[in-house]
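USER: My hope is that you can spare some time for a protein that puzzles me. I am handing you a single protein, as its sequence and its fold in token form. Walk me, if you will, through where the backbone shape changes along the chain. The protein I mean follows directly.
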Amino acid sequence: MTMLYLTKGARPDECFHLQTGPPVPHVLTLFGVFKRVTWSNLFLADGTPGVFTSWWVIGNAIHWYKGNVKCDATRTHMYWNGQLDDGVLPVYTPDPKKYVVCTTEKEKFSVRFFVDPGTPEWSNMGGS
């Protein structure tokens, strides 16, 4: 029996699970001075709702994000491309409606300076 190996090639502290559907951004911008992106359709491994929010102040001068779960774009693409199996045949069949999300502690908070906000999309939650 084949097995999905979500932590393949990951650091020992990294934690991943699958969720159905992409995270959905909700954007609030005030006069180009403040931007907040709050994400919905995020779930923890036990199925309870997760949270993730990014803020920008003074254009791009200060950016930070905080949450308890975020989408991992690299691992989601690896999953969709069949690269996260355990190496035992048969290879798993990826579900294109599933996304790999991360609950790794060091991924839950970040502060950055002079980072331009990107387009809010699931594949760039920390930078959008």
User: Anything to note?
Assistant: The mean pLDDT is 89. The beta strands are 16-20, 24-30, 34-40, 52-57, 62-67, 70-71, 98-102, 109-113.
